[in-house]
Write a structure and sequence with these properties.
The protein is mainly beta. The chain is built from one helix and five strands; from the N terminus they run H-E-E-E-E-E. The longest helix has 11 residues. The chain starts with a helix and ends in a 27-residue tail after the last strand.
Length: 117
């Protein structure tokens, strides 16, 4: 069994949930399970998707939000068992796949236009 065959076998074993389609610039809410001691609760992380990275089992997405005037970014793996659900709140209009320039913008300049359907 070669390296690629072994990788393919492991990727097939990972359970994948069906999440809605989203891309960079979209505003989403990630419902994430937090385990504190023996208690478990669901925390919501709402922000703008900065990028989608990776393929297959290693696919991830980065979400950025402003919390108390400070920018907070979090990277979520698609294959994470802790993601309960993902809600797409707004579809944004951006021309890039990775919108890291948003980190340097504040106020009205940091707004993203909404795509109408």
């Amino acid at each position: 069994m070669g390296k690629t065959e072994l990788l393919q076998f492991v990727e097939d074993q990972v359970e994948r949930k069906a999440f809605p389609e989203f891309k960079a610039g979209d505003t989403i809410t990630v419902h994430y399970k937090i385990r504190e001691g023996n208690k478990e609760r669901i925390q919501q992380f709402q922000g703008v998707v900065l990028q989608l990275a990776g393929t297959g089992c290693t696919k991830t997405f980065t979400v950025r939000k402003i919390s108390s005037g400070i920018g907070v970014e979090r990277i979520f793996p698609f294959a994470s068992p802790f993601i309960e659900q993902i809600d797409v709140n707004k579809h944004g209009v951006v021309r890039r796949a990775r919108i890291f320039y948003l980190r340097n913008l504040t106020g009205k300049k940091a707004r993203i236009k909404e795509r109408r359907k």
